[in-house]
Amino acid sequence: MSLSRRNALRSVAAASATLAAPAIFRHAALGADPITVVGIHDASGGLDIYGQPMIACLDFAVDEVNAGGGLLGREIKLINYDPQSNIQLYTQFATQAATSDHAAVVHGGITSASREAIRPILRRYKTLYFYNTQYEGGVCDRNCFCTGSTPAQNVESLVPYIMKKWGKKVYIVAADYNYGQITSKWLTKYTRDGGGDVVAVDFFPLNVTDFGPTIQKIQQAKPDMVISALVGGAHVSFYRQWAAAGMKSRIPMASTTFGGGNESLLLSPEEGDGIVVAFSYFQEVDNPANKAFLEKFHAKLGAKAPYLGGELAMRTYTGFNLWAAGVRKAGSIDRMKVIEALETGIGVDGPPGRTVLDGKTNHVSLDVYFAEVQNHGFKILEHFANRPPADTASVCDLAAHPNTDKQFVVDVKI
Question: Based on the domain organization, do 327 and 213 belong to the same domain?
């Protein structure tokens, strides 16, 4: 299902032309009183490489449910807002979703900063919130459901795998905000647990594009591998500059983030091939549910269908379907009734495998895949089923403490 680079760029351009904010998707009425769902994802700005596929999958999920009769016999009305990678717009649209749109649920946010801009607003206005993004773990809030993978699900397995493959001397480069800072601690912990050594950790703001000095430092350090937790369109420059410096053939690289924004399509095979990554989904996952999904997805969207290289878009599709399953079980869109239904351990089978909600943490157990970049796509290397959110479970118990409202920073012993 790989797209050529030309087709990928054409898809992004087409998506950009159709994803203006706010965009309201209307369907044939199933009832006089539609259920409003709001999405807040970056269709433009520095994080649009992640946001555009997420929007496409949320729209597809809503259309799929409406085509099947809606929810509780009612149409789903989806409103998509584009925060343009601007935190102030995230807060504005979250407030609008709760107070003006009267949304039954909001699916939104990409970075942890955007999540923490949205989360307190929706909690205050008692509007249910789904954060469908891989992140650093630790959010403990009964009103917020996190459906992406966390370090205990992907990093814990990835680090021993690559250390066995490449060696024990590691250099880490990461985005300079919550995700990169906390994930780098997990990377360090698991490296040391395996008898390895982290020679350096370098952090970069999301707008940095010049990585020359760091590449020189890596050349001097001579690690066995580099692990990247870089994020966003600007950071794609690192991979280009790494290859241009002749380093790609000398030091292998793994990443916890590469591919989530279809970076593999933006780079040439000479720049990207060989990078090893870990996510809870790749478009190349080989199971009947994924094959059926991709057939319908491409039939509906045609040339506008984005490549689904990493998990963010698929977690958005899965998160919406988990919420819908909660509504069906509750027989209502009432927030607390849906929360109580979700907390019973609702699960859905879908393209990435089985996803099951954990009522104590409002996180999920999910499958994790390792893959290697090959010719703009991914070759699946390993599959780990039913990985629990053990990091967040070590600090969060909403069954015992339902009024908890914070993000814990798990005490990573390094």
Answer: no
